[in-house]
Amino acid sequence: MREDLKERIEKIKRGVVPEGYKRTRVGIIPESWKICKLSEVCIENGKYGINAAACEYKKNLPAYLRITDIDDEGNYIKTNNVCVDSDDSMKYILKENDIVFARTGGTVGKTYLFNPNDGELVYAGFLIKFSIDIQKYNKYILKSYCTTERYWNWINIMSVRSGQPGVNAEEYSKFTIPIPSMCEQKKIEKVLLLYDEKIKYKKKVLKEKNKQKKWLMHNLLTSKLRLKGFYGDWKNEKLGKLLLERNEVDSIESELLSITGSGIIPRSEIEGKDNSSEDKSKYKKIYIGDIGYNTMRMWQGVSAYSSYEGIVSPAYTILKPKDNVDTKFFSYLFKLPSIVFMFYRYSQGLVDDTRNLKYENFKKIKVNVPSDIEEQKAISHILTLADKEIEILQQQIEQIKLEKKAIMQLLLTGIVRVNQKGGE
Question: What is the reported pTM?
């Protein structure tokens, strides 16, 4: 980073206006930039969505865009879609350059910029639509600006003015934004889109890695694919002959752990420091190499191998291995859809919310597994490597997102300028 750029950033952090900049109600910005209200860069004032009930998805009906259909990154979620069947639907069809804002509840401020590739969408009543005048403001830059720290600070201030968090159309229309020249907007867009392409590519690779892991699990854990050097028989055994229940208690000084569908982690990583006063004398001990499962949610596949030693809630069941058992192998086996279905069958309860799989029923379930523990270990090793590849890709994606967020904050406030050569 050039010395003059470092100095400029430090000045602005201290509230000092550098040469070529000005102080405004949106902060310190370049002298050549303007300030406009959202309504001034849009063709019309904000419009509320349709108030209609959702219906089952049908090809001949438009999809219904609700707040819950927008993810945290402002993308349309294309799974579990519903439709809307109303004579007024056509009045609420999103068009190119339309952007919608969530107006109430815990998701107030969330935005979605319409993408024609998402198909025909009707926006719901808890969304407010603005149509961007792209002759005045780059739609991608506006969408990006609505993810900045300043935008979310504004949302937090505006939304607490009433009992129920919310920002109405009139309030959104008055939101002020800094406006670079159209030429500079294009250059900023080009820089940010490079990050989007990197994220898109990494996500594509991640999707393929997940598919590969799923294929490996299906074939390796069912003996459809045998590893080189292993020719021994697989045996059909009851789980009770392979995994015993661990019922140790009175270890209240041990670390408190939580069992999730994706792993066993310290509860402090979820909730912060444990300040609860609950009685932990009946909490169960779990050791490295054990498997823990949620007794009430095993039929949903909530189980995991433990890489920690600690204590867990009595609501969990703890399994310890017998001789010639690799628990990592079983932790993967317990994620197979066919095995999860067996857990569902053996769980007791009148409705799903009350179903539970206690050890007495768990131990009766039969599974087909390698007789040789070395084959179990070899299979779990391959699947562990696949998990590590997936984890690395996920970390890389998050790192690129952080880099984009940082550069976006600088570019969209004019602290860093994009010159004719593409950067400062």
Answer: 0.84
